[in-house]
């Protein structure tokens, strides 16, 4: 039992890192399967080689990006109701900046799998070699004399290792270029992640210890919120089914009203004057009145900015 508690504590403290690591490992495994089993460069023409190689290099990364957005709950929190006619007029400069900041954070989180795919695919060099063998730059670099035989052999090179020696070690050159690009993607991503983390820490409104507590609270609240959803959904469904089949009047079950759901679904921004660690925390402390007044204040400021 003690081991399970330590494991749960370790997972809670390093949830993000473990999640990104698992996603990266799964992406690497899938890429290796595609590269060794599915991918077969056509080696027929320059246009087919380029289209086929780029499709395997970029299309899976794009699909992983879309799946990441679809699986991210924060994305749906940002998106839900934004096209509603009742809500489109509630935009202000502050809410728009906060929305864009949250969207950028979500994009950074879901970009782990696509960048992993591109980096691993470039290190493997199969996709790049196939695509580059059909590019005009490769023809200019390897076949400066513009001979037809050289161009024909260049498109067939990914499928025939013997042709690499006849075209100035063309295959090794393309593989080296691909691996260099792969390391550039890895280094650039690592530097951007480090710089983003440093900037976020420098501009943070809370101390390091309080930020640790905030993360633990967010994880605990999310876990318990799912349990509460399950509990009340079970109670409500049992009551409705029982009343339907037994033809009885329903007993009242206390649930949040429509406005409470709206207030609890708002984006949360931390304030040093009011230490609320989530939107629900702020809703409980201040009530619906405080949040409604805050929303009206933001709308008034937005209206004043629009007045010439």
Summarize this, please?
15% of the residues are buried.
Protein model, in words:
The protein has 14 helices and no strands. The chain is an all-alpha fold. The chain has 2 domains: 39-203, no CATH class; 208-304, no CATH class. The termini are far apart. The relative contact order is 0.09. Residues 296-308 have low confidence and may be disordered.
What key attributes describe this structure?
308 residues; mainly alpha; 2 domains; 14 helices; elongated; disordered C terminus
Topology:
Blueprint: H1 2-13, H2 15-38, H3 46-71, H4 73-79, H5 93-110, H6 112-124, H7 126-132, H8 136-142, H9 148-156, H10 162-166, H11 170-202, H12 208-246, H13 258-264, H14 279-306
Strand content: under 5%
Mean pLDDT across the residues is: 80
Label the overall shape: elongated
Could you list the spans in which at least 5 consecutive residues all have pLDDT below 50? 296-308
Total strand segments: 0
N-to-C CA distance: 67 Å
Number of domains: 2
Helicity range: over 70%
Major sheet characteristics: none
Structural class: mainly alpha
Count of DSSP-assigned helices: 14
Q: What series of H and E elements makes up the topology? A: HHHHHHHHHHHHHH
Rg on CA atoms, Å: 27 Å
């Amino acid at each position: 039992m003690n081991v399970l508690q330590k494991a749960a504590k370790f997972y809670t403290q390093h949830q993000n890192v473990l999640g990104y690591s698992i996603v990266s490992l799964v992406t690497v495994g899938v890429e290796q399967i595609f590269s060794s089993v599915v991918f077969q460069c056509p080696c027929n023409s320059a246009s087919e080689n380029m289209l086929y190689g780029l499709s395997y290099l970029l299309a899976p990364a794009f699909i992983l990006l879309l799946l990441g957005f679809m699986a991210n709950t924060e994305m749906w929190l940002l998106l839900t109701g934004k096209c509603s006619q009742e809500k489109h007029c509630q935009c202000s400069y502050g809410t728009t900046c906060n929305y864009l900041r949250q969207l950028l954070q979500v994009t950074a989180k879901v970009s782990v799998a696509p960048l992993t795919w591109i980096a691993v695919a470039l290190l493997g060099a199969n996709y790049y070699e196939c695509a580059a063998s059909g590019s005009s730059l490769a023809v200019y670099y390897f076949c400066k004399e513009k001979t037809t035989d050289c161009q024909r052999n260049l498109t067939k090179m990914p499928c025939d290792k013997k042709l690499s020696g006849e075209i100035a070690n063309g295959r090794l050159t393309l593989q080296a270029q691909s691996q260099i690009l792969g390391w550039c993607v890895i280094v650039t991503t690592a530097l951007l992640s480090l710089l983003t983390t440093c900037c976020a820490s420098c501009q943070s409104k809370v101390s390091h210890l309080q930020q640790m507590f905030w993360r633990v609270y967010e994880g605990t609240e999310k876990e318990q919120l799912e349990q509460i959803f399950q509990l009340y959904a079970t109670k409500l469904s049992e009551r409705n089914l029982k009343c339907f089949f037994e033809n009885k009047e329903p007993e009242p079950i206390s649930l949040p009203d429509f406005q409470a759901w709206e207030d609890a679904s708002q984006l949360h921004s931390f304030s040093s004057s009011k230490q609320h660690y989530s939107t629900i925390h702020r809703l409980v402390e201040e009530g619906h009145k405080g949040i409604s007044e805050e929303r009206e204040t933001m709308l008034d400021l937005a209206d004043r900015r629009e007045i010439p």
